[in-house]
Amino acid sequence: MSDPFKQLHTAMNQFAAERDWDQFHSPKNLAMALTVEAAELQECFQWLTEEQSRALDDEQLAAVRDEIADVQLYLIRLAGKVGVDIEQACRDKMQKNAAKYPADEVRGSSRKYTWYQK
């Protein structure tokens, strides 16, 4: 885990300990809370056109920024609870995705990977 993730993980542990919230932070509960925060992020874009979603005003961007932070903080907390190194997990997943979605076969397509598999 890189230093910024370690620092945030430590800060999240301290934050929860100071509030006696560790008792509520089971992996199940953290995963559920994460989906709520992801939905709040999605809500920031609800009813916007594609173009509007690419040109957020300052207020909209501030709301998106806060929700992205909430999602990331819950991910860090959950990863710590189950012993996952987020940085390594992302590297591993990118390798799997590269094998699953070969650039020369899927370039420019948004179709699910199963359409081109032999």
In terms of quaternary structure, the protein is single chain
CATH H-level homologous superfamily name of the domain at 3-84: MazG-like
User: Separation of termini?
Assistant: 37 Å
CATH topology of the domain at 3-84, anyone? Helix Hairpins
CATH architecture identity of the domain at 3-84: Orthogonal Bundle
Radius of gyration: 18 Å
Mean pLDDT: 93
Which structural class do you get from the secondary structure elements? mainly alpha
Question: In percent, how much strand structure appears in the residues?
Answer: under 5%
Helix content: over 70%
Instruction: Identify the overall geometry.
Output: globular
Q: What is the name of the CATH class of the domain at 3-84?
A: Mainly Alpha
Q: Largest sheet, if any?
A: none
Number of helices: 6
Q: Would you count the extended β strands for me?
A: 0
Order of helices and strands: HHHHHH
Low-confidence blocks of residues: none
Pfam family, one: MazG-like
Protein name: NTP pyrophosphatase, house-cleaning of non-canonical NTPs
Organism: Halomonas cupida
GO molecular function: nucleoside triphosphate diphosphatase activity
